[in-house]
Amino acid sequence: MNGIELPKLKKLGPNGVKKKKILLLSDDMRLHSGVGTMSKEIAIGSVNEFDWVQIGGAINHPDAGKVFDVSKDVNRELGIDHASIKIYPVNDYGNAEILRQIMSIEKPDAIMHFTDPRFWGWLYNMEHEIRQHMPLTYLNIWDDLPYPHWNENFYESCDLLMAISKQTYNINNNVCSRKPRKEGIDLTYVQHGISEDKHYPITEDSVEFSEYFNFVTERGYDKFDTIFFFNSRNIRRKSVSDLVLAYRLMCDSLKKSESDKCLLLLHTDPVDNNGTDLPALIKALCPNYKVAFSGGKLPSKQLNYLYNLSSATCQPSSAEGFGLSVMESIMSGTPILGTVIGGIQDQMGFVKDDGTPVVLEDFSADWPSNSDGRYKNHGEWAFPCWPQINLQGSPMTPYIYDSRPSIKDMAKQLKNIHNLGRKELKRRGKIGREWAIKNGFNAKGMCKAFIDSMKTCFDNFEPRKRFTLLSAENPTHTYSDGVIFNSKEIFEESTK
């Protein structure tokens, strides 16, 4: 993706109809962050319907101030000639003046925001400039409880709220107390989806098996019977330090001959200012057990190799909008271990006592999450860790649950994975991939839901001739509990 010279962009889709142009505000789609990756998937997956312009953010962005037209690259990749995608990189999260300039140049038909709204507060404080002319839409990743009422003004400023998980959908619906949302109109469910062509199982009859085999043996991964894989940023909420401790406890319970055949493989930065010094932690907690780092960033093909060679992918996050590595693992045919929170629970295939799936309509103010363990049965590919609830807060986030899994419970699940063996785990992983594709957790399913949502938004949009400026800094709201447990039940249980 190179170049500053901007060719004249095509305006017609494959059916000869003029396409709407969407201006996206999110992480630069060329970055490997979860938001950046999904921004790219959505844009590329919808180029038949929409043209795209992005204000692509990154901390200390090296390309800030440049412009990149990546249309030719996308057309070449997809084998088409009508894709139009342009990126304006910015430092951090940009500002109102940058948006005004790009709106004047690009003349978009809609603005879409995708990431935490609090980082883009300036956008919502200028909604009166936007909604007179075009819809303001938001793909919401907020996953945690209690209900974030301080976000209400952000949500109310939007003509369309799209949710990436069932829990987030329920949050959107219950936080918008001043203006109830209409399902399918200004509130929709657009679950994340992963390309099944980028993440897939590799078997002995696969074309690339010999290359995969060499990758595995050259790095010595074939020496291990059980490999636990972690693929996320080294930050506190990802709980990688908890995983290291749980791995130590699991290894302590094994014979030395068994623990010598176990490996904890970490695809993350060894040290992060927002996380921990993992080499120091490992030296202190796991001096006698095998822990390794993957060696930095890898091409997508080799990342798929890491998923395939692993026994399970571990995501013990205390908060998680969706959990991209979880779905990448499932698509690769590898089981998952994760905390029952946010979007991770959607990927575990929970079912009710009668065997029917837990669906969007089951989530409500009375039951906003399965973190309370109401439903225990789940897909064979999933190894859930039930969270312990603690309340945290900060000036930016007044209150939020810190839903960390029990170390002992996580260690038990790691041992369960170890005891099942590679053959059984691969069987379960195959079932997980089939389930995910069937239930729309692929890029095709996500993009269809997104396209339908945006078309409905365009059809129903009415310019706001009169408006009330909503201040993101001064919320007004009525509170509801939005807790993930029933206080009455807990009290009664404690007094028995």
Walkthrough of the structure:
With 496 residues, the chain is of the alpha/beta class. The protein has two domains: 20-194 and 447-460, Rossmann fold; 209-441, Glycogen Phosphorylase B (Rossmann fold). The chain is 33% helix and 17% strand. It contains 17 helices and 16 strands. It has helices spanning 34-45, 71-78, 96-106, 121-124, 127-130, 152-156, 166-175, 209-218, 240-252, 256-259, 278-285, 300-309, 324-331, 407-420, 422-438, 443-460, 487-494, and strands at residues 20-27, 50-58, 68-69, 85-91, 110-114, 136-140, 160-163, 187-189, 226-231, 262-267, 291-293, 312-315, 336-339, 382-385, 387-392, 400-405. Strands 3-4-2-1-5-6-7-8 form an eight-stranded mixed beta sheet, with helices on both faces. Strands 11-10-9-12-13-14 form a six-stranded parallel beta sheet, with helices on both faces. A two-stranded antiparallel sheet has the order 15-16. α13 links the parallel β12 (312-315) and β13 (336-339). α9 (240-252) runs parallel beside α11 and α9 (240-252) packs across α14. The chain is globular, with a radius of gyration of 23 Å. The N and C termini lie far apart (65 Å). Residues 1-10 and 484-496 have low confidence and may be disordered.
Task: Provide tags for this entry.
disordered N terminus; Rossmann fold; globular; disordered C terminus; 8-stranded mixed β-sheet; 2 domains; 33% helix; 496 residues; single chain; alpha/beta; 6-stranded parallel β-sheet
